[in-house]
């Protein structure tokens, strides 16, 4: 935007400078020409005075010597004619009084009128300036003195003046651009820069960012108000989201605690109750993670005090129960490659796998394949289904809180499952990747760092 504004203003300043330069250039050329004409007119007047007596007496020897000496001194040819245009004295031979320029000047001079000033000299022109003055005695014209003035020096002076003018205009344009155009551009674009900075702050999560609309143009004020309204809506939505998650986790703690007390009593009588007690504990951990979701998504610092967890072994153990669940629903669960790899013990493998396998059974299509592999410094747990998959836009939103694909919004769910998976992976420095595999379907990869001190 700034570049476009400068590209519009700088040519405008240049055009104004050119418009101002035309009369200034004409003044320089005209003034230089006039000074040269007046200087040589004075010399022509002097010759006219000196020629008055010789034209009456016919003794022109002295007049011829003055003409030659003047020619040698100023490099300017001089000649004197009588009223019949006969050359009576000249500084050099070969004078053609029928030359159009000389004829025009002599016609005016011998008629008793002063010739008009010549046109302005320009560097690209050539030729001489003809200056003439009448020789007069008692009001009677006796002849005329004529100077054929070279114009090289005058045109050179005009050229120097034009160069100085050009340099001054360039400096003036530069000064205007630096001193006026750039500050004006910054002033005009300051509201947009503020809006741009505020947008970056919002993208970084600072949803309480607002822009000032005081003293702004109506269009920019409306734009600022629209931005503030958008930021406020996002802030309120995020606040409602956090409050919902916090309230939900808080409300779940009491019934879970009560259920655990009852099931703990039954666990002494039934081995099956002990499994239920284990699931109650897992639900308690899920509630704790929901509380963390109400805060920041940034990964925490993992101390790593516990022994590394073999991800492949943990996955295989959890799949034992899930194979029975899938078999009961006539779904095929394939256990793929299982490469041992040590990860942080804090990684909640059961919770992550439960979410991924539950989503695959509800939203995907069999067979569902689970594998654990290594990719450089990462251990990758993959769950693939053969359903419809997701579009490129939806793939970028996988893991956002409360987000659900347009194809699955009519199905039961909260849109928090993959957000929990992403949060769990982030706690140990990992990440979640969703991609379309060859052959269709969807692959969800949970990539976590491979611990360097792990031994197979």
UniProtKB/TrEMBL annotation:
<dbReference type="InterPro" id="IPR003660">
    <property type="entry name" value="HAMP_dom"/>
</dbReference>
<keyword id="KW-0418">Kinase</keyword>
<dbReference type="GO" id="GO:0004721">
    <property type="term" value="F:phosphoprotein phosphatase activity"/>
</dbReference>
<dbReference type="InterPro" id="IPR003661">
    <property type="entry name" value="HisK_dim/P_dom"/>
</dbReference>
<dbReference type="InterPro" id="IPR005467">
    <property type="entry name" value="His_kinase_dom"/>
</dbReference>
<keyword id="KW-0460">Magnesium</keyword>
<dbReference type="InterPro" id="IPR003594">
    <property type="entry name" value="HATPase_dom"/>
</dbReference>
<keyword id="KW-1133">Transmembrane helix</keyword>
<dbReference type="Pfam" id="PF00512">
    <property type="entry name" value="HisKA"/>
</dbReference>
<keyword id="KW-0843">Virulence</keyword>
<keyword id="KW-0904">Protein phosphatase</keyword>
<keyword id="KW-0067">ATP-binding</keyword>
<dbReference type="InterPro" id="IPR036097">
    <property type="entry name" value="HisK_dim/P_sf"/>
</dbReference>
<keyword id="KW-0902">Two-component regulatory system</keyword>
<keyword id="KW-0808">Transferase</keyword>
<keyword id="KW-0464">Manganese</keyword>
<dbReference type="InterPro" id="IPR050980">
    <property type="entry name" value="2C_sensor_his_kinase"/>
</dbReference>
<dbReference type="InterPro" id="IPR004358">
    <property type="entry name" value="Sig_transdc_His_kin-like_C"/>
</dbReference>
<dbReference type="GO" id="GO:0005524">
    <property type="term" value="F:ATP binding"/>
</dbReference>
<protein>
    <recommendedName>
        <fullName>Signal transduction histidine-protein kinase/phosphatase MprB</fullName>
        <ecNumber>2.7.13.3</ecNumber>
    </recommendedName>
</protein>
<dbReference type="Pfam" id="PF00672">
    <property type="entry name" value="HAMP"/>
</dbReference>
<keyword id="KW-0597">Phosphoprotein</keyword>
<dbReference type="InterPro" id="IPR036890">
    <property type="entry name" value="HATPase_C_sf"/>
</dbReference>
<feature type="transmembrane region" description="Helical">
    <location>
        <begin position="161"/>
        <end position="181"/>
    </location>
</feature>
<dbReference type="GO" id="GO:0000155">
    <property type="term" value="F:phosphorelay sensor kinase activity"/>
</dbReference>
<dbReference type="Pfam" id="PF02518">
    <property type="entry name" value="HATPase_c"/>
</dbReference>
<keyword id="KW-0378">Hydrolase</keyword>
<keyword id="KW-0812">Transmembrane</keyword>
<feature type="domain" description="HAMP">
    <location>
        <begin position="186"/>
        <end position="239"/>
    </location>
</feature>
<keyword id="KW-0472">Membrane</keyword>
<dbReference type="GO" id="GO:0005886">
    <property type="term" value="C:plasma membrane"/>
</dbReference>
<keyword id="KW-0346">Stress response</keyword>
<keyword id="KW-0547">Nucleotide-binding</keyword>
<keyword id="KW-1003">Cell membrane</keyword>
<feature type="domain" description="Histidine kinase">
    <location>
        <begin position="247"/>
        <end position="452"/>
    </location>
</feature>
């Amino acid at each position: 935007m700034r570049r476009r504004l400068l590209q519009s203003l700088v040519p405008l300043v240049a055009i104004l400078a050119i418009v101002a330069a035309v009369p200034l250039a004409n003044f320089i050329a005209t003034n230089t020409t006039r000074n040269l004409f007046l200087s040589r007119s004075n010399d022509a007047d002097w010759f006219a005075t000196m020629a008055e007596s010789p034209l009456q007496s016919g003794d022109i020897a002295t007049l011829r010597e003055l003409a030659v000496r003047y020619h040698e001194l100023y490099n300017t040819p001089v000649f004197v004619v009588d009223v019949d245009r006969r050359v009576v004295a000249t500084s050099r031979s070969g004078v053609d009084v029928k030359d159009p320029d000389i004829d025009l000047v002599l016609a005016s001079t011998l008629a008793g009128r002063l010739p008009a000033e010549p046109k302005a000299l320009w560097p690209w022109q050539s030729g001489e300036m003809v200056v003439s003055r009448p020789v007069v005695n008692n009001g009677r014209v006796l002849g005329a003195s004529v100077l054929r003035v070279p114009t090289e020096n005058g045109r050179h002076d005009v050229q120097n003046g034009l160069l100085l003018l050009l340099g001054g205009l360039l400096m003036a344009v530069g000064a205007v651009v630096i001193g006026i155009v750039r500050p004006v551009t910054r002033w005009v674009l300051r509201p947009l820069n503020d809006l741009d900075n505020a947008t970056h702050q919002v993208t970084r999560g600072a949803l309480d960012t607002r822009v000032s609309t005081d003293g702004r143009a109506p269009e920019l004020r409306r734009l600022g108000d629209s931005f503030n309204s958008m930021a406020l809506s996002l802030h309120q939505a995020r606040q409602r989201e956090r409050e919902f998650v916090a309230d939900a986790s808080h409300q779940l703690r009491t019934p879970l605690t009560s259920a655990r007390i009852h099931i703990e009593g039954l666990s002494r009588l039934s081995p099956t109750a002990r499994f239920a007690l284990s699931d109650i504990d897992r639900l308690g951990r899920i509630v704790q993670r929901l509380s963390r979701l109400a805060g920041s998504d940034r990964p925490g610092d993992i101390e790593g005090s516990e022994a590394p967890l073999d991800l492949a072994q943990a996955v295989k153990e959890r799949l034992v129960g899930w194979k029975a669940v899938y078999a009961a629903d006539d779904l095929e669960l394939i256990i793929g490659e299982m490469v041992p790899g040590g990860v942080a013990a804090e990684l909640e493998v059961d919770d992550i796998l439960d979410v991924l396998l539950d989503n695959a059974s509800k939203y995907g299509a069999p067979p569902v394949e689970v594998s654990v592999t290594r990719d450089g410094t990462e251990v990758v747990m993959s769950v693939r289904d053969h359903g419809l998959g997701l579009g490129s836009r939806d793939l970028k939103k996988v893991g956002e809180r409360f987000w659900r694909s347009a194809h699955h919004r009519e199905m039961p769910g909260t849109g928090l499952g993959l957000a929990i998976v992403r949060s769990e992976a982030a706690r140990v420095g990992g990440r979640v990747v969703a991609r379309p595999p060859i052959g269709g379907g969807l692959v969800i990869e949970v990539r976590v760092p491979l611990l360097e001190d792990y031994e197979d």
